[in-house]
Amino acid sequence: xxxxDTATPGLAYLETRRLEVDALLDKYLPAESVYxxxxxxAMRYSVxxxxxxxxxxxxxxAYEAFGGTASDIIEPAACAVEMIHTxxxxxxxxxxxxxxxxxxxxxxxxxxxxxxxxxxxxDALHDLAFELxxxxxxxxxxxxLARAIGTAGMIGGQFADVAAEGKQVxxxxxxxxxxxxxxxxIRACLRIGAILANVDEQTLERLTxxxxxxxxxxxxxxxxxxxxxxxxxxxxxxxxxxxxxxxTYPGTVGLEQSRTDAERIIEExxxxxxxxxxxxxxxxxxxxxxxxxxK
Amino acid sequence: xxxxDTATPGLAYLETRRLEVDALLDKYLPAESVYxxxxxxAMRYSVxxxxxxxxxxxxxxAYEAFGGTASDIIEPAACAVEMIHTxxxxxxxxxxxxxxxxxxxxxxxxxxxxxxxxxxxxDALHDLAFELxxxxxxxxxxxxLARAIGTAGMIGGQFADVAAEGKQVxxxxxxxxxxxxxxxxIRACLRIGAILANVDEQTLERLTxxxxxxxxxxxxxxxxxxxxxxxxxxxxxxxxxxxxxxxTYPGTVGLEQSRTDAERIIEExxxxxxxxxxxxxxxxxxxxxxxxxxK
Lengths: 295, 295
Hints:
The structure is a homodimer. By secondary structure, chain A is an all-alpha fold. Helices cover 72% and strands 1% of the residues of chain A. Chain A has a single domain, classed as Farnesyl Diphosphate Synthase. In chain A, a hairpin with a 2-residue loop joins strand 1 and strand 2.
């Protein structure tokens, strides 16, 4: 880790947690030696290809911040949301959807294996996520996740995103897409962590607002990075969103306004996190990391 | 209903229940007027295209047989398993999988809508199923469903089925495919119904064995019908399993042996159902219907 990196807000915390999550994913994914082997290989290939693990980290952070201590509950639950995230990427990358061939610097699953395998591995991760979350014993947590990623959430956002391809979209439309495609799951991660820790409803409500803000900022910055980035740094084909004329925030309000909006939203999220009066405010660190991140 | 039909074992019971389930599915599916409309239209198109509704009927039958009375618990749970069944058909029909263009006499979803829509509608039904089942408040029921349709169950069977295409398969392999691709969900429907009714573990175990038998017989008869049937009666392209050289039971042991085996298994299932000493033994009627069915 370079000197600059240690000065990055939240990076030390996120890096430690990321390594923990990587180990948990390895533990909760079926082994490659278990039948059907090729399907399990495919699932592991996609989930273990790397990533910031921001969703499980948000869940663990919320769980612990509000007093949760049972690792056998939070560990499978945290893996569940990363599996959901990966399943959504696998299906989004399919030829009939975004048709992407590269993800995190590696061939996408349907390129590396085949298309049938990619459909089924995505389905299997979607499914395993619910099995793992059900281990918590909380049907409320299950309902929370299912709602967040259904047609009123993530899938709805993805559908609107595909439908918007090649069209000029309004700020309202792009806000809808972001809030659903990315925001709903990020928000749900925080809520599920807090629900599993039996938080009171008022705190849950404020945490939800924090989650909506960081989720929105996260996607705006994703869009900014997609415009600014280069292939090497991001590990995916640059400007692929531009190529397909996909709906983006900077494409609608411009780069400068996008940056200003993201910064303001991050400050609002930080302000909410301070209300919780925590000994270690990791929510602030995560919010600042999202505002800072370069990839 | 013709005179012959009324003499068919279990048909009156199954027909009454089927109409109830159809109405419930219409109720629990998002309306076409709700955004994203086209996605909801696609989900409704596939789920409401018809079908025997044998899975939800099995669940309702088990729930009521063992004393369950809460319609707000069993209704969404029953719809959940039919949505799972439909999601699996939608994804199985995709060009990269079985590449079927006809299902229940209608164009398959990717033909009627488009492929992206079919992937997402399948995902959305998969997801909605867990949301509906979570309404029961039983995390155990959720875990039961997730396990039954994951890589150790339905998806594992589907993967093995796709992998077996064009190859000569052994009886062990075909038994594995059937037990997982079809059997696991049928078994789970009965178990979840009984679990939601708080049945004792010993009864649950016997019900599981009943479920395994009717699930196996169901698939053998499906294979027999596929060999014998004609396009009009089945509403799908005849011999499509043959065309793709898919693994079938009669293809392995022959038609005659297949019929004998199915009859024997049905009788074993009926024998178990009589142990429950129920006032109305609908389990027997369902088993006999499965043994008798012509489509």
